[in-house]
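Re: that chain you flagged

S.,

Sorry for the slow reply, it's been a week of failed gels. I finally had a moment to sit down with the sequence you sent. For the record, here it is as I used it:
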Amino acid sequence: MERATFGGGCFWCVEAAFEELAGVESVTSGYAGGHTDNPSYREVCSGKTGHAEVVQLEYDSDEIAYADLLEVFFTIHDPTTKDREGPDVGSQYRSAIYTHSDDQLETARAFAAELEAEGLYDGIVTEIEPLEAFYEAEASHQNYFEKNPNDAYCTMHAAPKVEKVREKFGENVATQ
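Prediction finished late last night. Pasting the structure tokens below so you have them in one place:
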């Protein structure tokens, strides 16, 4: 199993989208990129810890490649808006890729540069750097969309991302 860590706005939405993929064995919501050890959700939401809301995936690279995960990541959020995704504003909602190896770091940077060169995005602001620490979010944030599919936030923001993954990456979607 390998790991990948992504931040693209509220972790509930990012978690729900990645849980759709075959080869992704687990998705854990949490926090990374900050300066406070073991922060709480409330502390992260204050914007004072420096953390981003992220998800950490455990995936089987024989079933899904890291580059495929990057493609999904860049598809489900806007990597050109600084500290914002949809209605969520603040540094905790920034676009970020926290890498687990030099290979992931090089692959992520090259992938983002290629998207810019192809003109698919203008001004990618995604933070791409090695992961220093990952802190698992509280239990109430794990599998949030699955547990709360009728929550207004989920129906307006998470459900469209899940649908986008199903439509665009259907061949990689796990059978339910």
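What I noticed first: Residues 152-168 form the longest helix (17 residues).

Talk soon,
D.
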